[in-house]
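Same chain as my last thread, 162 residues:
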Amino acid sequence: MKNIKNFFKTFLLFELVRGMALTGRYFFARKITVQYPEEKTPQSFRFRGLHAQRRYDNGEERCIACKLCEAICPALAIKIELAEREDGTRRTTQYDIDLYKCIFCGFCEESCPVDAIVETRVYEYHGEKPGDLYYTKPMLLALGDKHEEQIAKDRAVDAKYR
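reply #2:
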């Protein structure tokens, strides 16, 4: 009996008919395609995009040159050099991120004790030459200044999970 059933399923192309029925059902359903440049999809407040450095309210950079982000980076994409000030505090003289190497894991952001390095929601960036995706300290601080409002909102939403 089972052999006869299998014969008729094969002869009548039962699997093909089931597949075509499924295709037909979705063919006439409402489409959910996003027209990308005009429409943007919603992002999570934990989205990891382009890096930025933050400043304190008085305008001073937050980074204390602890080098935790450089140590924890699995791709070795961060390079930091530091100098000690006259008042005994340490600050970075060089803070570079090579986005060709970066895997956007977020470890640098998690390891930072003062929330100096963050990953913003910016995902629309590109580089035409190899040096275009090598971000230096002034570039990172400029990005932080530009997107500080959104970064602060995201940090406030995420605060209860930290």
